[in-house]
Structure to design on (229 residues):
């Protein structure tokens, strides 16, 4: 079974430009999460999509946005890029496996490394 | 205060050693707990979920202490391939608030 896929692998942009990152979840998964991981730092929650709708977002400015398509794939858009947006952007999809607290279990894609010059 | 806190390490241990990491969480309403491992410049991979009664998977044992609000990961008979950063993840899965909180990770170096 194919895992979570992300494209592109690497993306280089300049300040002020816009970046679009893409994610395809594991087949059968309806939830997609986006995270930012700056070099040497932990994962910061960006967005959660489920069944085509934005369900929750982290503490990021509105220039970080996205959407989920009917096939559950997702796109993250970052407008007006700033130098500090340089990071690894990870997408995860989740199953509805029952864990101890009923939470979803997340499976991550390989990430898109965004560099803003 | 951070939602999830971990000792960043690094923990430098010889092959065959037993090593333990703790992770504390601030929200007493948290319901689900996980350990992930992340290799350098790679994506996190699920290591194990953490159940209230504790659980074991081979050389790995996870424990949850709700009273003190921490989870632990014990690795026995460390292998060189265990070298990675271990991430603690906590979640309160109430609908429309399915936000996962990741610790910054504990780095483990297993030396020959």
């Amino acid at each position: 079974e194919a895992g979570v896929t992300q494209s592109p692998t690497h993306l280089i942009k300049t300040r002020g430009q816009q970046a679009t990152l893409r994610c395809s979840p594991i087949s059968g998964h309806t939830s997609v999460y986006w995270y930012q991981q700056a070099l040497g730092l932990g994962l910061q929650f960006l967005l959660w999509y489920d069944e085509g709708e934005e369900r929750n977002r982290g503490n990021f400015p509105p220039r970080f946005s996205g959407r989920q398509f009917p096939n559950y794939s997702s796109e993250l858009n970052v407008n007006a890029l700033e130098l500090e947006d340089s990071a690894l952007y990870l997408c995860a999809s989740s199953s509805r496996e029952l864990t101890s607290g009923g939470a979803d279990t997340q499976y991550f894609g390989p990430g898109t490394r965004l560099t803003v010059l | 205060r951070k939602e999830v806190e971990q000792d960043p390490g690094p923990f430098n241990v010889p092959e065959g050693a037993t090593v333990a990491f703790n992770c504390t969480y601030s929200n007493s309403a948290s319901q689900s707990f996980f350990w992930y491992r992340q290799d350098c410049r790679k994506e996190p991979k699920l290591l194990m979920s953490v159940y209230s009664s504790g659980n074991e998977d081979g050389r790995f044992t996870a424990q949850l202490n709700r009273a003190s609000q921490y989870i632990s990961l014990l690795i026995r008979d460390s292998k060189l391939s265990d070298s990675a950063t271990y991430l603690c993840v906590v979640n309160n899965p109430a609908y429309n608030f399915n936000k996962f909180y990741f610790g910054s990770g504990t780095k483990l170096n297993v030396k020959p």
User: Anything to note?
Assistant: The interface with chain B takes residues 31, 33, 35, 41-43, 45, 48, 50, 55-56, 58, 88, 90, 99-111 of chain A (CB under 8 Å). The mean pLDDT of chain A is 90.
